[in-house]
Amino acid sequence: MTSRSTRFLNIVSPLGLLVIWQLAVQAGLVDRRMFPPPSEILTTLFHMAETGELWINLGASLWRVGAGLAIGSTAGVTIGIIMGLSPLVRALVQPIISATYPVPRTAIVPLFLIIFGIGELSKVMVVATSVFYVVIINTVTGVLSIDKVYLDVGRDMKVSRLQAFRTIALPGALPTIISGLKLGAGIAFLVLVVAEYTGSQTGIGYMIWEGWQILDLDQMYVGLLVIAVIGWLVNLIMDEVEYFAVPWHRHR
Question: Domain 31-249 adopts which CATH fold?
Answer without folding.
Answer: MetI-like fold (1.10.3720)
